[in-house]
């Protein structure tokens, strides 16, 4: 088992980060830097059209697809992962986190364009899509596509069992530490609440996330902004520090300058990528159900996911940790996961600890709700609707099992399984990049889409 853990740690270090960086960079260049050239237009078509009646066919609204996908990406890592990146890679890691966020937009955009273009209707008359569909239907070699789709679906379906256990344990442990309520009891309560949502299908999940995501993100960010404002005199210095350490990191991080810089970039890239899930292929599963008149238009909403998850939430956490100086404490590196809670506690006392704990529980619970949907969709793809229903039961039970601390041996396999999800998807998106470019050109030159929005036809 130690060898598996060591291999997993190595794989999710430079190899996976490099793969995600190169694919993001390739798609950014291949698509003509679309996320930079049309960033304002994308934001206008998403955040600027939230209350607009959606165009085209679909099962849920574009906003519901966004909040559903955000529920998966906004998790405990936004609170505990960012300070860990700062302590392991230095303050400069925050800069590289922003860089990979913008590059990753091209990757997330591409997988969502494909997910929507190749989507289908299931026997319940719901729109379904995602990597399994564009692998199966998009590859010229159909046998290879089917194999890729099978590996992706099976790996994601199984990976979510230990993943949900970890999430359930994280939420239950947080409540136990803060409010002294037994973790097992919390796990059972979370499992019951999750079942009430997930067995209602995508429409109930979308309704739930549409209601809860703005509240949980808003509460956490507002409280974080208050801490930043309280320490506003430190903000200019922190910005200078982040930029300076991005290119001239402390030698202690890696020994030599080159090693230190590599460490800083690695942790910044890793945090940005892992947080927004670009390349993982989960986002298209949610967005495939959205009402839209063109795959490209809905894919803009996936770009806005990264804006919320990384550019807003992760940046808030980073600045809270840096301006409050909690990262300078002697035990900061050993206690990196607790730095956000420490900063909130310093600013607001016990109430601050409660805010972090409540945010953590909401972030984790909303993540669980949506990943159960993802997993059940994979089971449905592989074995039919009944299998999807059975996997929902297994996932719900996994919440309680994880809260009790059971299944810890499975947790060690989590990252290996996740690599079996990510690698086939990255290959598929790069192979199918010409289709993404074709659809992008169609949208931006067609009289019914971009030109009509701009009043140029």
Automatic annotation (TrEMBL):
Segments crossing the lipid bilayer = 12-34, 93-110, 144-167, 179-199, 211-232, 252-269, 306-327, 347-374, 381-404, 410-433
- GO molecular function list: amino acid:sodium symporter activity
Annotated membrane topology is: Multi-pass membrane protein
Alphabetic keyword roster: Cell membrane, Membrane, Symport, Transmembrane, Transmembrane helix, Transport
| Record's GO cellular component terms | plasma membrane
What family name appears in the similarity comment? Belongs to the alanine or glycine:cation symporter (AGCS) (TC 2.A.25) family.
- What is the protein named? Amino acid transporter
- List the residue ranges forming a coiled coil, or say none: none
Q: By its UniProt entry, which Pfam families does this protein fall under? A: Na_Ala_symp
Keyword hit for DNA damage: no
Domain of life from the UniProt record: Bacteria
Q: Where in the cell is it found?
A: Cell membrane
Q: PANTHER family, per this entry?
A: AGSS FAMILY TRANSPORTER, SODIUM-ALANINE, TRANSCRIPTIONAL REGULATOR, LRP FAMILY
């Amino acid at each position: 088992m130690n060898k598996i853990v060591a291999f997993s740690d190595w794989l999710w270090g430079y190899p996976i980060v490099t793969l995600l960086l190169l694919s993001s960079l390739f798609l950014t260049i291949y698509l003509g830097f679309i996320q930079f050239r049309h960033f304002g237009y994308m934001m206008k078509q998403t955040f600027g059209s939230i209350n607009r009646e959606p165009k085209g066919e679909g099962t849920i609204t574009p906003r519901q697809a966004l909040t559903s996908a955000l529920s998966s990406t906004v998790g405990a890592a936004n609170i505990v992962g960012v300070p860990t990146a700062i302590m392991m890679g230095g303050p400069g890691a925050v800069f590289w986190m922003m860089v990979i966020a913008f590059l990753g937009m091209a990757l997330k955009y591409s997988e969502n364009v494909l997910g929507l273009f190749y989507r289908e209707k299931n026997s319940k008359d719901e729109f379904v899509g995602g990597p399994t569909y564009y692998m199966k239907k998009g590859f010229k070699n159909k046998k290879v596509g089917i194999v890729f789709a099978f590996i992706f679906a099976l790996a994601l379906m199984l990976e979510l069992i230990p993943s949900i256990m970890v999430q359930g344990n994280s939420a239950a442990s947080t409540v136990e530490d803060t409010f002294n309520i037994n973790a097992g009891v919390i796990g059972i309560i979370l499992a019951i609440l999750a079942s009430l949502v997930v067995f209602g299908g995508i429409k109930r999940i979308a309704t739930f996330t549409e209601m809860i995501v703005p509240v949980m993100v808003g509460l956490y960010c507002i409280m974080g902004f208050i801490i930043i404002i309280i320490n506003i005199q430190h903000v200019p210095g922190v910005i200078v520090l982040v930029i300076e350490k991005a290119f001239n990191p402390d030698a202690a991080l890696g020994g030599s300058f080159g090693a230190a810089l590599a460490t800083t970039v690695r942790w910044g890239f890793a945090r940005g990528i892992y947080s927004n899930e670009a390349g993982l292929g989960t986002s298209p599963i949610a967005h495939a159900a959205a009402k839209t008149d063109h795959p490209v238009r809905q894919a803009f909403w996936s770009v806005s996911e990264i804006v919320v998850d990384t550019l807003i939430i992760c940046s808030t956490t980073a600045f809270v940790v840096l301006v409050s100086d909690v990262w300078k404490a002697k035990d900061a590196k050993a206690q990196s996961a607790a730095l956000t809670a420490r900063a909130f506690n310093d600013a607001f006392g016990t109430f601050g600890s409660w805010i972090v704990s409540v945010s953590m529980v909401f972030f984790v619970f909303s993540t669980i709700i949506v990943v159960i949907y993802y997993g059940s969709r994979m089971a449905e793809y592989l074995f039919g609707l009944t299998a999807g229903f059975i996997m929902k039961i297994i996932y719900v039970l996994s919440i309680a099992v994880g809260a009790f601390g059971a299944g810890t041996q499975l947790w060690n396999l989590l990252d290996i399984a996740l690599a079996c999800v990510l690698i086939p998807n990255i290959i598929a998106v790069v192979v199918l990049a010409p289709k993404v470019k074709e659809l992008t050109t169609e949208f931006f030159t067609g009289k019914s889409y971009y030109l009509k929005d701009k009043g140029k036809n």
